[in-house]
Amino acid sequence: MNLSSPPPGHDLDALLDALPRELPPQRELWAGIAAVIAAPAVRPARLRWPYALAAGVSALGFALLLASHTSFAPLPLAQLEQQSGTAPVEPVARALAAKESDYQATRASLQGVYAQRVAMLSPMTRARIAADLASIRRAQDDIRRALAADPGSRVLVRLYESTTQQEFDLYSIVGRNTEQVATRTRL
Fold first, then answer.
1. Could you give the number of structural domains in the chain?
2. Which domain holds residue 176?
3. Could you say which of 37, 62, 89, 173 would form a disulfide bridge with 152 (CB–CB 3.0 to 4.6 Å)?
4. How far apart are the first and last CA of the chain?
5. CB-based contacts of 111, cutoff 8 Å, min separation 6
6. Structure confidence by residue, pLDDT tens digits, 38-64
7. Is there a contact between 180 and 174 (Cβ–Cβ < 8 Å)?
8. SS (HEC) of the chain
9. Do the Cβ atoms of 171 and 113 come closer than 8 Å?
10. pLDDT tens per residue, the chain (187 residues)?
11. Number of neighbouring beta carbons within 10 Å of residue 44
């Protein structure tokens, strides 16, 4: 088919009118189309079991690796101290008692600012902060009781330090977030 301009002296409309209105297909197409539509969808068979087997072996290997590095039997305290280099029970309890006096001093200074600033907040915010503070203090009390039963537990000491830090953070957040309001009221 030539898409160039028609030869001189021929009108394009006349040439188009001379073309046949319908062109029958050279072969019957619908029989092949109908057969493809009617046939059930068959996916090519892929071997999935090798992937499943590899995933299972990998998971088993990972579980064995974790199990080999984890001890499920509790070790005697002396052996734990020897392996981890931790101090005996008495120095752990003494160290916590020494930190407790520092905690009390820090708590007292932060509570002074907190008491002034928390009054600047909305009642709903004050109630939420009071509930959070009560939750922290309950956790501290629970940890103190647990430490009384197991004074050499470094985990409990770390938990106590963490909850105390959360208490201090709460005081500091209230202080920081009300700083602008406190500054404006002083001016």
1. 1
2. 87-186
3. 89
4. 91
5. 171
6. 777 766 666 677 777 777 777 777 777
7. no
8. CCCCCCCCCCCHHHHHHHCCCCCCCCCCCHHHHHHHHHCCCCCCCCCCHHHHHHHHHHHHHHHHHHHHCCCCCCCCHHHHHHHHCCCCHHHHHHHHHHHHHHHHHHHHHHHHHHHHHHCCCCHHHHHHHHHHHHHHHHHHHHHHHHHHHCCCCHHHHHHHHHHHHHHHHHHHHHHHHCHHHHHHHHC
9. yes
10. 556 666 666 788 888 888 888 887 777 777 777 877 877 776 666 667 777 777 777 777 777 776 666 544 444 444 444 545 444 556 666 667 777 777 788 888 888 888 888 888 888 988 888 899 899 989 989 988 888 888 888 888 888 888 888 888 888 888 888 777 656 555 4
11. 4
Residue 7 inside a domain? The answer is no
Q: Is residue 58 part of a domain?
A: no
- Taking CA atoms, 60 is separated from 38, 54, 106, 122, 132, in Å, by 45, 10, 50, 55, 43
- For residue 155 the two structure tokens come to 């985990």
Dist. CA 89–CA 153, nearest whole Å? 8
CA 89 to CA 46: how far, in whole Å? 62
Type of residue numbered 125: T
Q: For 118, how many CA atoms within 13 A lie in the half-sphere containing its CB? A: 17
With tokens 């046949």, the residue in question is 20
Whether residue 66 is contained in a domain is answered as: no
**Does 167 reside within a domain?**
yes
Provide the residue type at 152 as one letter: G
